[in-house]
Write a structure and sequence with these properties.
By secondary structure, the chain is mostly helical. About 75% of the residues lie in helices and about 5% in strands. A hairpin with a 5-residue loop joins strand 1 and strand 2. The radius of gyration is 18 Å and the shape is extended.
Length: about 100
């Protein structure tokens, strides 16, 4: 296993995800509301869907490369642990959201 390659993939995927998120936050137009706060105006639903899917893919690549570096191999077990980790994180997130009113 080439640890340097997986480290570069890991760092690049999270860097691209963060940079993409910051770019969207700073470059999308904002509408000033009467109370002085700002509301982001997204260009279209297609833009939102493509952005969310690309962020999910980058998150999967980040978690998968982290698991590969931890287990020191690329295997089906690594893929399973990645999926289990992400599903567990999603369930935990939904559990925390259930306490919100």
């Amino acid at each position: 296993m080439n640890d340097k390659l997986w480290k570069v993939i890991q760092i690049a995927s999270i860097t691209i995800a963060i940079a993409g998120g910051l770019t969207v936050v700073f470059l999308t137009p904002k509408e000033v509301l009467p109370d002085g706060s700002k509301h982001m105006l997204f260009p279209s639903v297609t833009f939102q869907v493509i952005f969310v899917i690309s962020l999910l893919v980058l998150l999967f690549v980040f978690v998968f490369s982290t698991m590969v570096r931890r287990e020191k191999e690329v295997s089906l077990n690594t893929l399973k642990s990645t999926v289990i980790y992400l599903v567990g994180f999603a369930i935990f997130y939904l559990f925390l959201r259930s306490f919100r009113d």
